[in-house]
Amino acid sequence: MDKLITARSNAFQQVQINLSNNQAKFAHIPAMGKMFTSLTSLIGETNELIDKAENIPSKTSGNKNLVRAALSSVALKASNILKAYSFISKEENLSNFVDRTNNSYLTKLREKELLSFCKNLLERITPLKTELADYGLSEEMITELSTKITDYEKVLTEPRQLINERKTTNELIEDNIDQIQSLISNQIDPMMELFVDDKEFYLSYKSARMIVDPATRKKAENVESPEEQTEE
């Protein structure tokens, strides 16, 4: 998560906490109450998105090489069965499909080529499962091939899906942060001027509005005065 986004999110939560602790002071102002409700809702939604972003895995759940090896193994068994059947039955189309199939052939196939081959293999053996049963094909082998195809397709597509999911979630977080900033700056800040005479509430709110820029945090703490913090 971007450090500045985190800093802004934390600061906005401090504003929400401050207002929550002082609800009685603006209970007689309906507009302020609506603003507080909107702020609370947006912050809650943003926190959920942040939790989601942090829990999106950085790596896929499966080892691509191991999953590929498992798929190739069962595909080779099914191919050999189909090869024997097609040769004996003189099924030329089937024979042409599996004629070159061996371990070396499967190893040389690119990722999507292997996936395509295995899907085609499954489509060819499924309608022939009764005939191929005499050659050693079982329901378990068909199920295993189907499962391994699904597993392999998942490890091929999951990285891109994770990247897209992370990107979309971060964009939603940034959009929410901007909405919160607008709500505070353009609505709640002006409304707080009604409480300028309530020093405790007013000054505690102003303090909660201070956001430390993570990029200059060390300099601000060690060299500059606390007043150098930036208020948005």
What does it look like?
With 232 residues, the chain is mainly α. The protein has two domains: 127 residues, no CATH class; 95 residues, no CATH class. The protein has eleven helices and two strands; from the N terminus they run ααααααααααβαβ. Strands 1-2 form a two-stranded antiparallel sheet. Helix 7 packs across helix 9. The longest helix has 54 residues. The chain is rod-shaped and about 95 Å long.
Question: How would you summarize the topology of this molecule?
Answer:
Elements: H1 3-21, H2 23-26, H3 30-55, H4 64-89, H5 92-98, H6 103-108, H7 111-125, H8 129-133, H9 139-192, H10 199-208, E1 210-211, H11 217-222, E2 230-231
Helix pairs in contact: 1-3, 1-9, 1-10, 3-9, 4-5, 4-7, 4-9, 7-9
* Shape, principal axes of CA atoms: rod-shaped
The helix/strand order is HHHHHHHHHHEHE
Q: What is the count of distinct domains?
A: 2
Radius of gyration over all CA atoms, rounded: 31 Å
What are the salient characteristics of this protein?
11 helices, 2 domains, disordered C terminus, mainly alpha, 232 residues, 2 strands
Short description:
The protein is mainly α.
